[in-house]
Amino acid sequence: MSMTEQEARAWIEGCVPRGTMTGLEKFVAMILDEMPRQNLIAASTAEHIWSRHIVDSAQLVPMVGGGGPLRWIDLGSGAGFPGMVVALMLPEVRMTLVESRRKRIDFLRFMAESLGIADRVAVAGQRLEMLDSSPYDVISARAFAPLDRLLPLAHRFSHDATLWLLPKGRSAASELEAVTTSWQGDFRVVPSKTDPDAAIIVASQVQPQGKGQKGRR
Ligand SMILES: C[S@@+](CC[C@H](N)C(=O)[O-])C[C@H]1O[C@@H](n2cnc3c(N)ncnc32)[C@H](O)[C@@H]1O
Fold first, then answer.
1. Which of 39, 143, 153, 162 is deepest in the core (most CB within 10 A)?
2. How far is the CA of 42 from the centre of ligand 1 (A)?
3. Which residues bind S-adenosyl-L-methionine (predicted)?
């Protein structure tokens, strides 16, 4: 069974300090307030925003392990899922949110300022294809592109130890199957906490088939 809103909030409250919860509440309020002006999340999911979007994003956080600073890039961030949620939860992360739609870019920048995290959240307001290559420790993408399109587009942002976190709904296994002849790496399908039918593709050492290890940058 899917998580209820109450369960979702309780799950988050159990894993973040009060100040972070306040930031997440403010983030939720800003998105709901913006909804009449732009369609940031499917209207049908607005009343389930904590389970469908906040926890669905936050569940990526324990997958990165604790420790030092991380360079993280979130592809096709939309309203900030999962990138802004992760940035609120992990102060050691330097987050780049890639988003191509003008209104969403402006809104992401406004939210980062309002939430007091603009010093470590950069909004790359352009198509991913136009962004200069740079290595990131974590690459996330939720509802952005199927794996066979995503990997060729995003591989130039990885290094040999990059962790890929790709929430995939119900299509995880079939998307993975579709890339087995063209890509190699350590790919795992992890069940989602928020939806029993959904899963997250967690990958590392991702390379085109037949290529050796890339150097660490
Ligand atoms: C379906 S939405 C998902 C948004 C968010 N990740 C989420 O899960 O709610 C996909 C987003 O990717 C953006 N997008 C699509 N193609 C893009 C590209 N080539 N470069 C940057 N952003 C892109 C769209 O504008 C849109 O906001």
1. 162
2. 13
3. 76, 81, 128-129, 142
Answer whether 159's CB lies under 8 Å from 70's CB.
no
CA distances (Å), origin 190, targets 52, 61, 119, 124, 207: 17, 13, 32, 29, 20
What CATH number has the domain bearing residue 190? 3.40.50.150
Domain that holds residue 59: 5-208
Q: 140 CA to middle of ligand 1, Å?
A: 12
Residue minimizing CA distance to atom 23 of ligand 1: 76
Tally the domains of the chain: 1
Q: Is residue 215 part of a domain?
A: no
Closest C-alpha to ligand 1, atom 24:
76
User: Which atom number of ligand 1 is nearest to the Cα of residue 131?
Assistant: 20
User: What lines the ligand 1 site, CB under 6 Å?
Assistant: 76-79, 81, 98-101, 104, 127-129, 142-144
In angstroms, the CA 114 to CA 136 distance is 25
Tell whether 213 is covered by a domain: no
Q: Give tens-digit pLDDT for 108-155.
A: 999 999 999 999 999 999 999 999 999 999 999 999 999 999 999 999
Q: What is the mean pLDDT of the chain?
A: 94
- Asked if the structure places residue 202 within a domain, the reply is yes
Q: What percent of the chain has pLDDT over 90?
A: 91
**Which protein residue has the closest C-alpha to ligand 1 atom 19?**
127
pLDDT in tens, 32-76: 999 999 999 999 999 999 999 999 999 999 999 876 789 999 999
Predicted TM-score of the model (pTM): 0.95
Instruction: Determine the distance separating the centroid of ligand 1 and the alpha carbon of 166, expressed in angstroms.
Output: 13
